[in-house]
Amino acid sequence: MRAVSSFFERMVQRFLPDAYLFAVIITFIVFVLGILFTDSSAFQMVEYWGNGFWDLLAFGMQMSLIVVTGYILASTKMVKGVLTKISKLANTPGQAILLVTFVASIACLINYGFGLVVGALFAIHIAKRVPTVDYRVLMASAYSGFLLWHGGLSASIPLLIATPDHFLQDTMGVIPVSETLFSSFNLFIVFVLLFTLPLLNRYLMKTRDQLYHPDANLWQEEEKEDHDAISATAEMTPAEKLENSRILSILIGAFGLLFVVFFFMENGFDLNINIVNFTMLFLGIIFHETPRRFLNSVADAVKNVGGIIIQFPFYAGIMGMMVASGLSQQMSLWFVSISSDFTFPLFTFLSAGLVNFFVPSGGGQWAVQGPIMIPAALELGVDTAKTAMAVAWGDAWTNMIQPFWALPLLAIAGLKVRDIMGFCVMILIYSFIPISIGLLFF
User: Fold this and answer.
1) Is 45 helix (H, G, I), strand (E, B) or coil?
2) Which of 369, 285, 389 is nearest to 322 (CA)?
3) How far apart are CA 127 and CA 198, in angstroms?
4) First CA to last CA across the chain, in angstroms?
5) CA-CA distances (angstroms) from residue 167 to 151, 192, 207, 272?
6) Residue 216 DSSP code
7) Cα atoms found within 13 Å of the Cα of residue 16, Cβ hemisphere only
8) Rounded to an integer, what distance in angstroms lies between the CA atom of residue 416 and that of residue 411?
9) Please, are residues 230 and 244 in contact by the beta-carbon 8 Å criterion?
10) How far apart (Å, rounded) are the C-alpha atoms in residues 187 and 393?
């Protein structure tokens, strides 16, 4: 195990480029595959790429705000205090890995965006508490919790097919979450991963010969002038009074939180990405107390989102080529052609894992694969709920080695994708076992 782990880490460190270059390379791979295996010409593939390039603008903004609002909230004195207290449960590197993995997994089961930010920020607090822990393994542990998101409460595919009038209702009907998220096979997968991933990550830490510790300066908070602590003898201008007004922050914060209350009263416990961002934003406004403190935190937070802003359009272009050329359809149909009624859930899972490299969005992937996999499942006599969850787990599975979703965490952690991906390969290999057992035998 030590040799395998070391091998993957060496390969990733040596050959895996920056996440931006990874997206560029995949762009050219899909371009060539589209020419070779579909009827699309080179000009058409470029056209598909350009037409799709801006299709993830809204989603890219949502993910940027996840990082920004999460950072804003976490930088408040109140939240720092809470995270610091929880981090005291870990006193050794092994305990640090166990605690971060478990907390990140629970957070991602609640909501994927929330989990990514909480995992990264909590890991930083743990690293301050236990400076002898390997920082790369710690952040890989925080990211490993994201493996569980599509089996949790914010899972896009099962929530979509449980919604009346979804686009495949005429084919498969409306499938309640009792048959997907709360089915025996999904609960088996979730609970096995929830309680074994921490142990796996702890073991991965033990395979390390040389531990990695970040520069201590990474966590040294700059001593900034407190703009609202202006000398009592100094006369404030009207503008300065507004910037340091606690009343304004409380009023606008209460305005936002009042909407949050109305939202949950009307929609129930619907933790979508927008309401998570909205809640974290207005809690941050209140907890920072003054507009000036809040704006200082915003200025620090936006430094972390450059990778997301520039890379998400490239993945939108890749999705455009995959879908418009029919390449994603051909991939899915090939897996269907080699399936039996018993192996179909497993091959659906594997096909979804492959497609996820090029269409790294749960909802987008279902739009591509759902119209292919559901009719095939009906023809083979396979449960459509399990088929949908097989696509969901395939989407979540290869996120472990797809930098797209790691970008928010890496931005907060101050790491490169190659710093954690070697460990994530081991997580990918291990997680194949419980997911396959759940899909085949439950």
Assistant:
1) helix
2) 369
3) 16
4) 29
5) 21, 32, 47, 20
6) G
7) 19
8) 8
9) yes
10) 12
Closest CA to 419 of 140, 184, 143: 140
Beta strands of 161-299 (E only): which ranges?
none
For residue 377 the two structure tokens come to 């499942």
Query: How would you write the pLDDT of the chain (442 residues) with one tens digit per residue?
Result: 667 767 777 787 777 777 788 889 999 999 999 999 999 999 999 999 999 999 888 878 887 888 788 888 878 888 888 888 899 999 999 999 999 999 999 989 987 877 888 899 899 999 989 988 999 999 999 999 999 999 998 888 988 898 888 889 999 999 998 999 999 999 999 999 999 999 999 998 887 656 666 654 555 444 344 444 444 445 778 888 888 889 999 999 999 999 999 998 998 877 677 888 899 899 999 999 999 999 998 998 888 788 888 888 998 899 899 889 999 889 888 999 999 999 999 999 999 999 888 887 777 788 889 989 999 999 999 999 999 999 999 999 999 998 888 888 888 888 888 899 999 999 999 999 999 999 999 9
How far, CA to CA in Å, does 262 sit from each of 255, 256, 268, 269? 11, 10, 10, 12
Question: What pTM, to 2 d.p., does this model score?
Answer: 0.82
- From residue 352, give the alpha-carbon distance in Å to each of 55, 387, 419: 21, 11, 26
d(CA 411, CA 307): 8
Report how far residue 214's alpha carbon sits from residue 296's, in angstroms, rounded to the nearest whole number: 25
Residue among 399, 431, 425, 400 nearest 6 (CA): 425
Burial of 264-274, coded b for 16+ CB within 10 Å and e otherwise, reads eeeeeeebbbe
Q: How far apart are the C-alpha atoms of 399 and 387, rounded to whole Å?
A: 19
- 130 within 8 A of 91, measured Cβ to Cβ: yes
